[in-house]
Amino acid sequence: MKFTHTTRSLKGELTVPGDKSISHRAVMFGSLAEGTTEITHFLRGADCLSTIDCFRKMGVEIQEFQDRILVHGKGLHGLHAPASILDCGNSGTTTRLISGILAGQAFSSELTGDASIQKRPMGRIITPLLQMGASVESLRGNGCVPLRIQGRSLKGIHYQSPVASAQVKSCVLLAGLYSDGVTSVTEPALSRNHTELMLSYFGARVTAEGTTASIAPDPVLCGASVKVPGDISSAAYFLAAALMVPGSEVLLRNVGINPTRDGILRVIRSMGGQVDILNETTAGGEPTADLLVHSSSLHGTVIEGSLIPTLIDEIPVLAVLAAAAEGTTVIRNAEELKVKESNRLDLMVDSLSRMGADIEGTVDGMIIRGGRPLHGTVIDSHLDHRIAMSFAVASLTADGETDITNAECVNISYPAFYEDLAGLML
Ligand SMILES: O=C(O)C1=C[C@@H](OP(=O)(O)O)[C@@H](O)[C@H](O)C1
Ligand SMILES: C=C(OP(=O)(O)O)C(=O)O
């Protein structure tokens, strides 16, 4: 898809699609609940549709309407053995969370995914699941999918996770629903806490203190109404675009600003960017607000440590923003980006430098000396939705033509992304 620099400014308002993490969890926990769960503003991206597909294969009736999804829950012990292999598509969240659920079932199952998922590390969930007494096998012996999981009764553990990962934490907590005692996870820094919030909203006994979350086994989960907030990870592209393109002002309505996800807002503030937070409210434990963003003159910053998990998926577009800012931005402790849909560290360094940015890769991040003009070129998205969207934003300030290959991969998390971006362009 080709982008040429014709934008003078971005103006208007937009409601971004529902949060991907929360949409996945609403389908999963709704399936394990008694009664019906109604989900509004559900993200109809390919990843969340993979989650729906997996639970339908285990006997859950899930109805899709224009404005809502109804999940007719089976209860904690009501899933059926799937007749065929569960296909998690491109979704790490589906793969890792569902594994925790499958580990405690009274049946065996197999799961797989696309070429990217087949390379992503699953050892990080296999290790704690084996400690809980689960039977999980990587069928090719490489620590990746396909996995075969023979469900069994599990024992509660305390898991000290080596990575700050909500997918690992959630996998262990979900297996904890099927264990013989309390299960807890401590992580090196707090990752997104949507699992903790939503499971307790559905009636589970979950406690959270610092970087430790614990769950008591065998709760009765009750179907509930879930209003999914707009995804801050999707809003991030418009925040960056409006900050960078002079004369812009954009209102993003109903965006989730959970403090475990709002690192981008803190970074924007530290770069001198102006984002007003309006109409704050909370639903199902999840805070949301309208974000009014104005183009701003930006300077470099440091992004590291416990901030990283709160903006992990936004680092590609933050690199674009840093290239537009004056001065140096240093990103550290972001090695997790190497094991996402693509190696996002290498791809950002390579492609942004080909556009003319002064950017250098480090072992766990990058150093960006901002302020150089960008030039359009061919950008390989490597079928990674966040890379495609980040370079669509970069193209707004680049001269010439930016040509993004396989740009349609945005359908993973934001099917209408290009239309929504075009709708704001003057
Ligand atoms: O739990 C979740 O919904 C997610 C957690 C993060 O992954 P990790 O837990 O692997 O960091 C994030 O990158 C992903 O987009 C969604
Ligand atoms: C890493 C991502 O998702 P997942 O891990 O679910 O594939 C993402 O959406 O950027």
Structure description:
This protein is of the alpha/beta class. The protein folds into two domains: 2-17 and 229-424, UDP-n-acetylglucosamine1-carboxyvinyl-transferase, Chain, CATH 3.65.10; 20-227, UDP-n-acetylglucosamine1-carboxyvinyl-transferase, Chain (Alpha-beta prism), CATH 3.65.10.10. Helices cover 29% and strands 25% of the residues. A four-stranded mixed beta sheet has the order 2-15-17-16. Residues 21, 92-93, 165-167, 170, 191-192, 312-313, 336 line the site of shikimate-3-phosphate (S3P).
The average pLDDT is 98
How many domains? The number is 2
**End-to-end distance:** 20 Å
CATH superfamily of the largest domain: Enolpyruvate transferase domain
Bound small molecules, by name, code or SMILES, are: shikimate-3-phosphate, phosphoenolpyruvate
Which fold name is given in CATH as the topology of the largest domain?
UDP-n-acetylglucosamine1-carboxyvinyl-transferase, Chain
Unreliable segments of 5+ consecutive residues: none
Strand content: 25-35%
CATH architect. name of the largest domain = Alpha-beta prism
Which strand order does the major sheet show?
Answer: 2-15-17-16
- Global outline: globular
Q: What does the largest sheet look like?
A: 4 strands, mixed
**From the alpha-carbon coordinates, what is the Rg to the nearest angstrom?**
21 Å
Number of helical regions: 12
